[in-house]
Design a protein that fits this description.
Length: 325
């Protein structure tokens, strides 16, 4: 039995996988591992390209673009290792991180899963990502900018304080290692999620099995946007997330915090619609511009809310479906 099964989901990223696997083989020592690639109907030469360089890779085809959760679950089902690692195709290892993570899981049975800090392509530490549930929930609320609003929201949705500074509530699915036995108890990723949010929801269930650790001084490179259709999403105060991200995160809120928390967010967005338009029109009036000029940001917000509405009833009743925008 291998010490580790490394699961990579592919969607038209064969060169990224080759680079990722080159870094795995270059830096990993002291453990045995297998590589599992699950393809989400890439409809290209990914399989031939990867297997030509790494014939020992175990390759599985989903038969459709079924999303991140379902593909990883297939990989977990096929895994022969006692530990499993969810690893994005657009990642690179820079040291023997895998052996260190396996060692933590072996030596600390109270730890359910481990992750590492993310570096940008230039080696700089990426801005602090969300590691608690309420950090993510606070980001959903669109309040007047300023420290006062941030402080108020943090009082309403405070973060937990752990004795171990490395402990977090959830870990990014770009690099998440856990035991196969832990998955057996917690269950696999929720297959209603197409992309995004599945690692947050999984973190909640994994966290019931033990501590979640973001290891200090443990790092990997995350290039990002390996299979993204939109690399240039412009973040604004009212449009912070791509539609797929927020549909998935709203589903997570419904699943973890219930109907009331979900309805509160949806009501918040609906009530904001006339406010963001009226606010911009008043600014145009003050600046002596045409009243209905420069409303692209507001129209995009309205489009986002319409997309959320398409999933409203399914989300309310927590229906089993693929929440794909």
């Amino acid at each position: 039995m291998p010490d580790l099964s490394i699961i990579i989901v592919n969607y038209k990223t064969p060169q990224l996988i080759l680079n990722c696997l080159a870094s795995v083989y270059q830096h990993t020592r002291g453990i045995t591992f297998e590589i599992i690639v699950v393809d989400n109907q890439s409809e290209d030469d990914s399989r031939q390209i990867v297997l030509a360089h790494y014939p020992d890779v175990r390759w599985f085809d989903m038969g459709a673009n079924a999303g991140f959760a379902r593909a990883n679950n297939l990989g977990i089902e096929q895994a022969q290792g006692r530990n499993v690692l969810l690893l994005n195709s657009d990642t690179l290892l820079i040291n023997n991180l895998l052996a260190r993570c396996v060692q933590v899981l072996d030596e600390q049975p109270d730890v359910a899963a481990v992750g590492a800090h993310q570096l940008s392509a230039d080696g700089s530490l990426r801005p602090n990502l969300y590691t608690t549930f309420n950090q993510m929930r606070r980001a959903f609320y669109i309040l007047p900018s300023g420290q006062r609003s941030e402080d108020w929201l943090k009082r309403q949705l405070p973060d937990p304080v752990f004795a171990d500074p490395a402990q977090v509530e959830w870990l990014s699915g770009a690099f998440l290692m856990t035991r196969k036995a832990t998955v057996d108890r917690a269950g696999g990723l929720d297959e209603s999620f197409f992309m995004y949010g599945e690692d947050v929801e999984w973190g909640y269930r994994l966290g019931k099995q033990g501590r979640m650790l973001l290891l200090p001084d443990a790092q990997f490179i995350h290039l990002e946007y390996g299979s993204s259709d939109n690399r240039h999403h412009v973040v604004t105060h009212i449009n912070r997330f791509k539609p797929q991200i927020q549909v998935s995160q709203l589903l997570w809120v419904r699943k973890q915090y219930g109907v009331g928390a979900y309805l509160l967010l949806m009501t918040h967005y609906v009530l904001l619609l006339p406010m963001v338009f009226a606010g911009k029109i008043l600014i145009n009036l003050k600046n002596r511009k045409p009243l209905f000029s420069e409303l692209d940001n507001q129209r995009l917000f309205a489009r986002q809310v319409r997309i959320f509405g398409r999933f409203f009833w399914k989300t309310i009743f927590n229906r089993r479906a693929l929440y794909k925008v």
